[in-house]
Amino acid sequence: MPKKIDKDLHKIRVLVKDYLLKKNGVPKPKTVGVGWPSFDEKEIMGAFDCLINLRLSQGPRVKEFEQRYAKMMGKKYAVAVNSGSSANLLVLSSLMISGKLKRGDEVIIPASTFATVASPIIQLGLIPVYVDCDDKTWTISPTEVEKALSPKTKLIMPVHSIGNPADIVSIMSIARKHKLLVLEDCCEAHGASLNGRVVGSFGDIATISFFVAHNITTGEGGMIFTDDAELFDILTSIREFGRLPQHILNKGRFSYEDKVLGFYDTRYVFTRLGFNVRMTDIAASMGLEQIKKLDKLNRKRISIARDYSQTLKKYETHVSIPYTLPKGVHSYYGYCFVINPKAPFTRKEITETLEAAGIETRPFFGGCLPDQPGFRDEPKRVVGQLPVSRWLRDNAVFIGCHPALTKEHVKHVLKTLELFFTNIDLKTNKSRQ
Ligand SMILES: Cc1ncc(COP(=O)(O)O)c(C=O)c1O
């Protein structure tokens, strides 16, 4: 019987593959979007297989996805969740439950990053300490981290922004010297590395996002990595309602005895306050196919980014281009360039030109988070004037460099940029004459 089902599934797979071939694959981006999933029949069949087998919630596919990704990250444990934001929220919650953090403790983060790096810190009664970014890598500056240390500092949360590895080696040495924990936010940095080590493998804990625009995707999704068995237990518990941790659930439904509840079904023993932020098997089955492709997809991103940089290098008086630390591998979640202070044009002018040509743009996400309306009046400590983060806030331009872009798309971007800068130079020279 199973053989028959497998044969039928194979037929469906062939049909889906043929269908996609006829359609020239999954839908392609019409314009140069900032992100686009790279799917084929394998992800579709993974999800389909879950649907026809009614594997609708968290189950064996999630477990397999966790085990595979933990291995890639060189960590003992992985906990899959429904987003990168949930991953950050769960990690900070688990650190508080374990007593490693308490209300009022300070968490050092880069000022320039995404909202849900800072918001769970504030939501849990911790204090974000915003420090500036390095002016070359645009990631958290170790020098600024050192300046930010106080007796209340307990955690440093570097972000490998846009796929560029932060100087995690220096951050780790500061953390070890001062006995601080490190949570690496790798939500934008799948497969990025430093000194041959993948980011996320340096710190005590790491998080990643599988949102649809990221290097690999499950639609929505996230994951947490750690070697800490106690945190793993707490994380698996608060991921689903505050249940008993997974290793006790695995012992069987009536393996738990309590002086009030007696022999109670383990699945309904709630040992702490929790959330429900589980990943579904449908999402995990797509992720299992995506991780097989990660290196290849990243190579394509790197190659497109190289083309962009080659062109933009000619205009380095006007714009700064990505810089990666020696022995670092940037995984280019997107391609960012930043307008230099004396450039004779504004970000509005260049983004309007790009957008009019069908080239989508984004800012450097939150820009400078303490300046955002939702964060201005929230508890915080700001270290220094944040000149780099504010320069990024006002001048960064993020464009797509994902594998769904064709050679024609890339040529179109390069031509549009060349034309923009040629016109700018012509205008500037004319006004000088
Ligand atoms: C640095 C960073 N952290 C966290 C997140 C949150 O991830 P998600 O969108 O999956 O919630 C993002 C989102 O892209 C991010 O860029």
Question: How would you summarize this macromolecular structure in one to three sentences?
Answer:
The chain has 433 residues and is α/β, with parallel strands linked by helices. The chain is built from 14 helices and 16 strands.
Highlighted features:
single chain, 433 residues, alpha/beta, Aspartate Aminotransferase, domain 2, Aspartate Aminotransferase, domain 1, 2 domains, 8-stranded mixed β-sheet, 3-stranded antiparallel β-sheet, 14 helices, 16 strands, binds pyridoxal-5'-phosphate, PyrdxlP-dep_Trfase_small, pyridoxal phosphate, Aminotransferase DegT, PyrdxlP-dep_Trfase, DegT/StrS_aminotransferase
Residue share in helix: 40-55%
Overall average residue pLDDT: 95
Bound small-molecule species: pyridoxal-5'-phosphate
Shape: flat
CATH class term of the largest domain: Alpha Beta
% residues in beta strands: 5-15%
CATH superfamily of the largest domain: Type I PLP-dependent aspartate aminotransferase-like (Major domain)
CATH architecture classification name of the largest domain: 3-Layer(aba) Sandwich
The number of E-state strands comes to 16
Structural class: alpha/beta
> What is the CA-CA span between the terminal residues?
84 Å
- CATH fold descriptor of the largest domain: Aspartate Aminotransferase, domain 2
Number of helices: 14
Domain unit count? 2
SSE order:
HHHEHEHEHEHEEEEEHHEEHEEEHHEHEH
What is Rg?
A: 23 Å
Mind describing the biggest β-sheet?
8 strands, mixed
Q: What strand line-up does the widest sheet have?
A: 1-9-8-5-4-2-3-15
Keywords: Pyridoxal phosphate
Organism: Candidatus Taylorbacteria bacterium RIFCSPHIGHO2_02_FULL_43_32b
Family: Belongs to the DegT/DnrJ/EryC1 family.
Protein name: Aminotransferase DegT
